[in-house]
Each structure stands twice: as structure tokens, then as C-alpha cells.
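Ex. 9. Protein: Glycosyl transferase family 1.
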Amino acid sequence: MLWVATGARGGIHGYGRALETTGLFADWGVERLVTHDDGSRRRRAALFARAAGTLVWRCLTARPALVHLHSAAYGSFVRKGLLLWAARGVFRVPAVLHLHAGEFEDFYRRCPAPAQSLVRATLRRADRVVTLSPALGAAVQRIAPGARVTVAENGVRLAPEPRVLAGPAPRVLFVGVLIERKDPLALLRAWAACLRPPGATLRFAGDGPLRAEMEALIHAEGLQGSVELLGWLDPQDVAAQLDRADVLVLPSHFEGQPLALLEGMARGLALVSTWVGGIPDLIEDGVSGRLVPPGDTPALTAALDEVLNDPDARQRLGQAAYARAQARYDIRRTAERLHDLYRQLSGPPALTPGGTAAGGAHD
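Predicted C-alpha cells for Glycosyl transferase family 1:
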């Protein structure tokens, strides 16, 4: 099977790493094709060309059981759409289009009419469109009635037990790219305005185009003693930050089903996020976290006030988030869902006499 995805930092790459630990890749002899990463424009063009050439060659010579394409919106959808039409339209290889973009419906609305027609045709051409949340699945069916949609929620590996969050100096964490749709500036403004217990800290694990503006705001508000910009961290260091955090905040304007929130749920952190995309499917406001309208800094400030200054509420929200992750978001459950889907579309994985998937795992 071909697994076609970005190698750039972010949720899609983390999703693949988590699934690899379940045995799904070994069972299906997955070969990864990387179409995009964080490199230069020339490097990204070369990556896509090489991935496209490999896909065509595999379809001509080995005929994979399935092609599973992972897409965000905008340029990512264009790249995966081209590969989907090659695999399914030309070579008749079953193709799954897996949408990870919370802003997909907004992307569709922004397309001119001819491009909208191509988006609809691509969604209908896929043997299955997989979405991370029921909300995104409903959006796909509004855009392209007749598209075959399956919801397969994200998953994560769970900690053995939830963290204890009742310490007097809460540690707050943001994980993600420092871009407008993640709105880290709103979090900084809310941090400046909220009532912070002595010793409370806020750390940003990530980097991006808003960093300079954030640094200026930190200095303007005198937040140097409580805020730290960590820059890009490797996955192990991000996990270590999550292991030490008490509160995870993600004030996004668009999301699918963000892996950062799931990682917080898997540890029992108190979560603060927004009413967008698939996030309300993850978090029940007031029960397993706090949700506020996107861009509403006063509401975000009030939510921070609550989780920072009420240790009992912090612990209650974190434990409820952990229980919800146990019930719905264990990565093994996600792997089982995908395994069933692959069997529906292509039959069982072909096994070698030794009992492993034919072709082995490739990197």
C-alpha cells in the first residue's frame, strides 16, 4: 500500500508516526511517499516530482492494493488531487483521500467556479473520503453530494494515568505553528490580561511567521518573566513539554481534529480551545475542557482565569478529558478503523509465508 503524505512538521506527520506504532503499517506493507516538507520551494517541487514518479511506477509495475492520500487544503489538495486522478482515474487502483483540514469548506468557497467543479469531481472520484470529524464529513457531503465519506477520528497513545494538576504554579503550553489561524497573539494578549498565580508560566512550542510580532508583544506587555518561545522542537521534546504541562491552550480559527489537543487529553491536561471545526467533537465545554469563540480575547482571558486559579476545576477538566480520550481516541482504535476500511476496499493484506505483509515496510 502507498501512504502519500507530507513530511512537514504538524498533525499529518504526527498522525502517521502514531499509527506506525500500532502495526498497521507492517500489516499492510506500507511504502511512504513524501510529497512536501519544510524545505525550500525547489526542494518541495523535487519531492513532489519524485513522489509522483514513484506512484506511477508502482502502479505500472507492482499495482499496490491501495493508495492512501493525506491532504490539507489549498496547495496540498491540488497535489493529492493530481495523484488521486493518476492512481484511480488512470491505473484503477483503489484510492482513499484523507482530509485533515478544518478549513476545507472555507477553501472550497474561495475557489472560483471551475476549480469548485474540480474539487467536487475529485471528492467523488475517491473510493472513500476519510474525515477526522463528523462536522468535516458533513461539509464534504454538502460540497459533493454522492461522495463516499467515512469518519475515522484521530488517535493518540494514552498515558498510563492522568496527570495531577493541582500545583500552585500552573504551566501553560501552546503547541503549533505560529500563524494567524492558530492565533498565538490572542493567547499572549489574554495572558497579559488574566489573573495569573505567582510562578505561572506560558510556553510556545513551535515557530512561524508571527514570531517577531510575538516577541515585540512580550516586551511591550512586560511578559519576559512568564512567557517563553521555545521554537521548533523534535517530537521527543514536544512530548516532554506536554508531560510537564498542566494546561494546553489552542485558540485556533480553523482546525480539523488537532493532534495537539488529543495529546493533551491523553495526559489528562486541562484544555482551553475554540468552537471551530472538529474541536467541539473532542471537548465538551465545561466538562472536559473550556471552549471560547475564536478571536474573542476577553472570553479566552476568562477561561484562562478559571483554569489558572481554580486547581479543583483544572483537575476535574483534565480527568474528564483523559476519560474521553480513553473511550474514543486510543490510537489502536483508529488503526482498527483504517484496517477495516482497507479490507473493504482491497480485501485482506497479502501475507508472505512467514506471516508478514508482502513487500514489508518501507521508509
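Check your answer against this statement. The domain at 2-155+330-346 is CATH 3.40.50.2000 (Rossmann fold).
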